[in-house]
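Input record (Table S2, row 248):
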Amino acid sequence: MVTIKSAEEIELMRRANIIVRDALDLVGREIKAGMTTAQVDKLVFEYISSCGAKPSFLGYEGYPASACVSINEEVVHGIPSPRRFIEEGDIVSVDVGSVYKGYNGDAARTFMIGRVSEEKQRLTAVTRQCFFEGIKVLKEGARLGDLGWAIQSYAESNGFSVVRALVGHGIGTDMHEDPSVPNYGTPGRGMRLRAGMTIAIEPMINAGTFDVKVLKDGWTVVTRDGRPSAHYENTVVVTKDGCEILSL
Ligand code: MF3
Ligand code: CO
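Output record (cobalt (II) ion complex):
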């Protein structure tokens, strides 16, 4: 069921998303080569807790951490580990969610560690821009296919591919609500968006093919060809003539 949020609900979602944004900004200042992915997770857990909010990923369908930390060919849902070290030249996607007074925030960034290859730099920048290309078409009455196509066409015209197996989502009192929000689509098709709908838009873009698989840990999604992938996500509320980004 797709819900339209009231002004009061949107205000609570602003709060939840500002906490997520600030946790990611903190990670961006602290992350460096030699750190473990568990240390990144600890920063996120402690920051969200200090705000009087709860990390929404922790315990979600058995997920064991507060952040997803996904390096290079890992697309999303990398499980933090005290044995996994971040290295110079890596791109590291960090995905964070919080619940504040019953409402969810969800966002992700990809960080470049020291000097990274030109391909990884371009992939990281294009993935971020995919989000901004997508929201250019957002407003009341726009269709999900318009949004998906805006993202897909930008990624593909830059020589990259869009992951199909995972999509964005509605968000509110649940982290994952209807509708599904694919990063691909056909203009003029799909559900019409209405003002007050809150959605998480999260392009996952691969340098090679769009094919992915899940590792034996049951969570970590990796590219099938082993080439790098990047992720960028914000929660937005659709408005009459555009949208408001809640997690920036
Ligand atoms: N943040 C992810 C999303 O955007 C979900 C994380 S899965 C979890 O949909 F298990 F880690 F919570
Ligand atoms: Co999400």
